[in-house]
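=== RUN LOG ===
request id: a7f3
mode: sequence -> structure
chains: 1
length: 153
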Amino acid sequence: MRAKGVYATEIDIVVPFFDVDSMEVVWHGHYVKYFEVARCVLLDELGHNYVRMKDAGYVWPIIDLQVRYARAARFGQALRVRAELVEWQNRLKIHYTVSDAATGERLTRGSTVQVAVSLANGEMQLVSPAVFVDDIERQLAAVSSLPAPGTHA
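=== RESULT ===
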């Protein structure tokens, strides 16, 4: 069973012509690009994007990628891509769901795992750097302290 994320964001994408094959079906590799776009928005919202990662002295390569295709996306289709933060203390794990934006039907889901690698010496870190964990937990605390939508503080 998939772990539930502690924070999520969603983006909308309309499938462009250059992402499809001659049958007007999205080429399977482009789903990884859709994951990346959603992951960048998620990391921006969490206050620790790729620029901050590099400035902190780390790169975060993907070491594992899982994709499960249920239905094909097609040219011109409006998609909603959801990215959910699942783990961050020892590695960065994000789950993704690609759905039809109009119907909500799930088309694809996947996950990525990234680990911190020191820019100074190229060594993989066995735990996430404190600067990363602190940024993420600070943002999660700020978000959890906000009143629920439709309520007043």
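=== NOTES ===
The domain at 7-143 is CATH 3.10.129.10 (Thiol Ester Dehydrase; Chain A).
The first strand starts at residue 7 and ends at 14.
=== END ===
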